[in-house]
Amino acid sequence: MFENSCTISSLFEEMKIKDSSFLEKYCYKGLSEKEKTELSENGFEIHSGKVRDCVIKENSFSMIHTDRLSAFDHFICHIPFKGLLLSKINLFWLKKAKSAGFPIPHFSEPRDRVIEMENLKLFPLEIVVRGYLAGSMLRAYEKNERNFCHNTLETGLKPWSKLSSPIITPTTKAKVGKHDENTTPEEIIKKGQCTKDEWEKIEKLALSLYEFGRKHYETLGWILVDTKYEFGQDAEGNIFLVDELHTPDSSRLWEKSSYKKNIEASLPPKMLDKEVIRRYLIEKGFQGKGIVPEIPHHKKISLAEVYLEVAKKLECF
User: How far lies 218's CA from each of 115, 259, 260, in Å?
Assistant: First the structure.
């Protein structure tokens, strides 16, 4: 019903002049308790993550993209059509990466919002590749912290400036409600979360994927600032990318045309991701502790329009 981007655009315009209850009507919050019970009774394993519900049975792993928005490891609010748009963007990138020869497990889209993948043994890590000084790394740098996840950052960097080369800053993958923690390759190997050989393969693959995504987004006039990857392993020990790829939820995207001018004026780049919500939360004094501030109606719609803009530019419809 909503695969036509024009239909979604017109609904966003209507949302702007109506109250929050109209917006909520178009937010998918995830599997109901009844649905979870029925699936469990039929032998499916259910996991509710920060933004997706996952359904597992034997070799099948289904990601259901909800409209939940997370930041600082907390549920923040619902964004209309977010899950639908992100699943389309994710599907675009999975197809593109698989066609380019990257190790992507078998996947399909049985219906809107759902991507089904081969169920692999996951590494309990999030592999973040960063090409620019932004986000939590920028906040640490502004506190004069020059070592970040075992990476020594160069001195004299301006906020949002480009790094001399991309770096990897891994984190642990925390359970819902818990915080992902920065870690280092040495700690990962020492804890047995992967072997030295596996880490070297993951590191090489992550950097190659980032370069692959960066080049394509650049052709669209955007900068792939940083992004998160997750990896899994089959029974033979082969490593594959799993989860999502280069979406505005797992990545930061900036507008390239205004980037240089903004940086020179000490202004933030034009952002095409959920960082605009993170910055609003920080302004309200929230960075993961305390009560989550209410997100204004217009900001929810603005972020939804960003997801739609990315999906349209990638020709996901």
Answer: 26, 12, 14
* Residues 6+ positions from 169 with CB-CB distance below 8 Å: 128, 130, 137, 148, 149, 151, 182
- Residue pair 246/206 in contact by the 8 Å Cβ criterion: no
Provide, rounded to the nearest whole percent, the portion of the chain with pLDDT above 70.
Answer: 97
Other CB atoms within a 10 A radius of the CB of residue 23 amount to 22
Distance CA 268, CA 61 (A): 38
What domains lie within the chain, and their CATH numbers? 5-120 (3.30.200.20), 122-264 (3.30.470.20)
The values of phi and psi at residue 39, to 5°, are: -65, -40
pTM for this entry: 0.92
Place of tokens 């502790």: 289
Q: Using one digit for the tens of pLDDT, what is the confidence trace for 2-55?
A: 557 888 999 999 999 988 889 999 999 999 999 999 999 999 999 998 899 999
Contact 145, 152 (CB under 8 A): no
